[in-house]
């Protein structure tokens, strides 16, 4: 395993290796944001349940005009009126069921009521301002399919068909391990020479949590073969997937990749991506393992590009995608490289449209530009980008929530 694997090939291999989704549980809809539906949800009612008024005004038969028409009843939302007497109008309010016989609603701004008689200004078409029963969803239709990761608007849709509990896959348990003798946890005192604070643990806790999954904190592994082997085995025994940061490159202090080879199987190592080249993927005692390269930006970028789609597929999401947008490049790249590069940019509106402005420091050890950016611009392998070119961008808010 020496050459670099293209990102799309690595993803195809990884996603193709996903087996059955986790077990299921029933959850109150209000607690199900971000959970993945394990069953289709079939509507048992029409939405809306009745033909109803889209306006505050008067319900009538269009053919009865021109009036004036006597106002024969008053129908607020939540009440059911009587069938509309021919040659009359009903005072009606937005959302109220229209009375049997009415075929139009005139908004009150277009008519006048005086002494119980309604005069309508202008023409009225049959069907005007009436929202038909079942126009949103009909009883018997699938409101949402299994494999949908619930967003706020999906929760609203399910509530609209009367659902208050859903069957979802239980959240994946994702073990996160940091590696490195130089690491100190924030809050554990000042740094000694050669040390730095463990930022990857926090980045990964956030990324895993934002996917609605359970973060299993497995702490820091020291740069030692035996300690690495033990920690990996323990993590694999308690989690659905093990994610490590660091220790996957070629130095003799990089133990993770070697121990995975020894304990289980290594299916992928080294991708044609920048940052994050030495990413490793395999299994430990059957549990999937993703070894993210330790540099803080490499952790973030490879999680978003590789771990996120893999975990979502494991979680049971039916359609996993990494959405891209087109923007104008506000920068030029140098020599074409063999790896797909991911440039931290700030997307800004300009006279050219949406423009991707490059942050000055693109080092994979620099986390501030990841935090300050709102997108990654993609430079495909072998491509040179000039200022003003179209460039594909990944919106970070779409991928971290
Ligand atoms: N001779 C070569 N050296 C390196 C190569 C190479 O091809 N040949 N690749 C480089 C690339 S690219 C990357 S990326 C790194 C990946 O290295 P590792 O995954 O082995 O990670 P470490 O060496 O353990 O750490 C790298 C870097 O990141 C810092 N780090 C690690 N963990 C954390 C953490 N939890 N919080 C904050 N910072 C962390 C660590 O201190 C190092 O500076 O390898 C290159 N080397
Ligand atoms: O690919 Mo490494 O992630 O350059 O720093
Ligand atoms: Mg290393």
TrEMBL record:
Cofactor: Mg(2+)
Membership in a protein family: Belongs to the MoeA family.
Reactions performed catalytically: adenylyl-molybdopterin + molybdate = Mo-molybdopterin + AMP + H(+)
GO molecular function: metal ion binding; molybdopterin molybdotransferase activity
PROSITE patterns the UniProt entry points to: MOCF_BIOSYNTHESIS_2 (PS01079)
Pathway where it operates: Cofactor biosynthesis; molybdopterin biosynthesis
Organism of origin: Pseudohalioglobus lutimaris
Function (record text): Catalyzes the insertion of molybdate into adenylated molybdopterin with the concomitant release of AMP.
GO biological process: Mo-molybdopterin cofactor biosynthetic process
EC number of this enzyme: 2.10.1.1
SUPFAM superfamilies reported in the protein's UniProt record: MoeA C-terminal domain-like, MoeA N-terminal region -like, Molybdenum cofactor biosynthesis proteins
GO cellular component: cytosol
InterPro entries: MoaB/Mog-like_dom_sf, MoaB/Mog_dom, MoCF_biosynth_CS, MoeA-like, MoeA_C_domain_IV, MoeA_C_domain_IV_sf, MoeA_linker/N, MoeA_linker/N_sf
One Pfam family per UniProt: MoeA_N
UniProt entry keywords in alphabetical sequence: Magnesium, Metal-binding, Molybdenum, Molybdenum cofactor biosynthesis, Transferase
Coiled coil: none
Annotated ranges, domain MoaB/Mog: 175-313
Protein name per UniProt: Molybdopterin molybdenumtransferase
Domain of life of the organism encoding this protein: Bacteria
